[in-house]
Design brief:
GO cellular component, one term: membrane
Radius of gyration: 28 Å
Organism: Nitrosomonas ureae
GO molecular function: electron transfer activity; heme binding; iron ion binding; oxidoreductase activity, acting on CH-OH group of donors
Keywords: Heme, Iron, Metal-binding
Strand content: under 5%
Distance between the termini: 94 Å
Helix content: 40-55%
Order of helices and strands: HHEEHHHEHHEEHHHHHHHHH
Largest sheet: 3 strands, antiparallel
Number of helices: 16
Number of domains: 3
Bound molecules: heme C
Protein name: Cytochrome c, mono-and diheme variants
């Protein structure tokens, strides 16, 4: 009897406990699912932001093609790389990948099947991205509509198409590892460094590469871009694109609108601003600007970049001829004083890009014209017409020499041969 009573109460208690836990499960389950969903959509949204900062779409999309479906050709001195489809299509994209596979690609430069990836995919920089940020990018990419698109294979010259050479290359030049904050610096500086060195992959262009396409330093000291006839100036020298003597606000304006009183982002840099940097949050762009400004701390302010080997007589004669061409073809926009019109036509007087040691970008601007980046801050940019069909090489050389030496500018003269060499190439 007594056992029965105990048994009875035991059953009641058991039922009661089950009831409670069942109610608990029923009450919390949808909550958990909802919290999970909210977390997921926040990750997707943050992933979309990070994907812009990494400018993944820029390379993984052809002109007029489906976003992220790949197929874009990247010409280099090693051959042509064709970007893969990174939409979640199961057959032709990365639909079968999981977070770990994606991490392996971004962080280690290995495909899902273990194949070593070519550093034309800037995983040499993306390796600095944290696991959390990589997962957010992956969540965003997986949320995209799948696009079924098979892209052609790379067309890489012998011997660069050999996997064992790539393995050697990686041992020599690839340093795997997430960005490590410098505790002696502010959180904003570290955030800026993280973005510039990692997702922003500024080093992919602003660096000198060796014969094997590897960049030797992380100091962003500038160099000719591989496969593009453009020079990406040094971000650590005030004589080039360093911003040591710029106000933070001006750096922010350049990165987000593509144009300031003194400078304009042109060619490939205009593309970077249009596709990526203009979307930086105000916090992140301030962080990036603070980091960029600090890069010039060790700049010795070397002002010996100017070499003249002309007698002053012929020098003056050349500038006179160049000045005439300037009056006829350029002055209407850039002004007799070279000051341009703020926010519309860039100033050429005091413009670092114009007096840089390498005249390549200036020559290219004159030959091909161009448009500054279309951004929210500069929605309808004014363009510059190309002069390739209007001026002969000698005339381009004269007018470029002129703008490099008028209004207090001072830089080497340019020869017709250099103009000829600057023709061709992408962008
Ligand atoms: C400068 C151009 C460039 C940029 C920018 C770029 N990629 Fe790529 N990506 C490539 C190329 C080229 C390959 C092919 C490499 C290979 O096959 O060895 C590639 C390969 C990949 C792969 C491997 C696909 C596979 O099938 O193995 C993934 C994943 C990927 N990219 C994701 C991204 C993400 C995410 C971003 C932005 C954070 C990004 N890429 C930015 C050029 C680029
Ligand atoms: C695809 C190649 C490429 C990438 C990636 C790139 N740049 Fe540039 N950048 C250039 C070129 C080319 C120029 C020279 C043309 C010009 O002056 O705008 C340039 C110029 C600049 C200038 C000077 C602009 C001026 O006119 O004074 C700054 C500052 C700059 N880049 C910062 C960055 C930062 C920061 C990043 C990374 C977030 C970056 N760049 C990524 C190619 C690139
Ligand atoms: C119709 C107006 C117009 C005329 C004419 C014009 N430009 Fe420009 N120029 C611009 C605009 C707009 C830009 C910015 C476009 C860009 O950066 O791609 C620019 C950019 C430049 C740049 C690049 C500046 C930088 O910081 O990167 C140089 C150099 C230049 N022009 C020189 C000349 C010379 C030399 C001539 C005459 C042969 C000339 N321009 C004629 C409007 C003009």
């Amino acid at each position: 009897m007594i056992f029965n009573v105990i048994g009875y109460w035991k059953n009641i208690i058991l039922l009661w406990a089950c009831g409670i836990s069942l109610t608990f499960v029923l009450l919390t389950m949808p909550g958990k699912v909802m919290a999970g969903e909210a977390e997921h959509s926040a990750a997707v949204e943050y992933g979309a932001y990070l994907t812009r900062i990494g400018n993944c779409m820029g390379c993984h999309t052809t002109k007029g093609g489906q976003p992220f479906a790949g197929g874009r050709r990247l010409s280099t001195s090693f051959g042509v790389f064709i970007t893969p489809n990174i939409t979640p299509d199961k057959e032709t994209g990365i639909g079968l990948w999981n977070q770990q596979d994606f991490w392996q690609a971004l962080h280690q430069g290995k495909s899902r099947d273990g194949r070593l990836l070519y550093p034309a995919f800037p995983y040499t920089e993306y390796t600095k991205v944290t696991r959390q940020d990589a997962d957010a990018i992956f969540a965003y990419l997986q949320s995209l509509p799948p696009v079924s698109q098979t892209n052609p294979a790379h067309d890489i010259f012998f011997p660069y198409n050999s996997e064992s050479l790539l393995a050697v290359w990686r041992t020599l030049y690839f340093k795997e590892g997430v960005y490590k904050p410098d505790q002696s610096k502010s959180p904003a500086w570290n955030r800026g460094a993280y973005l510039v060195q990692g997702l922003g992959h500024c080093n992919a262009c602003h660096t000198t590469r060796n014969m094997l396409g590897a960049s030797q330093d992380e100091a962003l000291t500038g160099g000719q871009i591989m496969g593009m006839n453009w020079y990406a100036p040094s971000l650590s020298s005030n004589l080039e694109a360093g911003s040591g003597d710029w106000e933070i606000e001006e750096i922010v304006t350049l990165l987000t609108t593509g144009i300031t009183k003194r400078a304009v982002a042109s060619g490939p840099m205009a593309t970077v601003v249009r596709q990526s940097l203009q979307y930086l949050s105000s916090e992140d762009v301030l962080a990036m600007a603070a980091y960029l400004k600090s890069l010039t701390e060790n700049d010795i302010g070397n002002v010996t970049g100017v070499h003249f080997s002309v007698t002053s007589g012929s020098f003056r004669k050349q500038l006179e001829l160049g000045g005439k061409i300037y009056q006829e073809y350029c002055q209407a926009c850039h002004g007799a004083d070279g000051k341009g019109a703020p926010g519309i036509y860039p100033a050429l007087a005091g413009n670092r890009g114009v007096v840089m040691d390498s005249p390549l970008n200036v020559i290219r601007s004159v030959l091909n014209g161009g448009y500054p980046a279309t951004t929210a801050g500069n929605p309808r940019p004014y363009g510059m017409p190309p002069f390739q069909q209007i001026l002969r090489n000698e005339e381009v050389a004269l007018v470029v020499s002129y703008i490099r030496n008028a209004w207090g500018n001072r830089a080497s003269l340019v020869r017709a041969l250099e103009v000829d060499r600057s023709k061709g190439g992408d962008d």
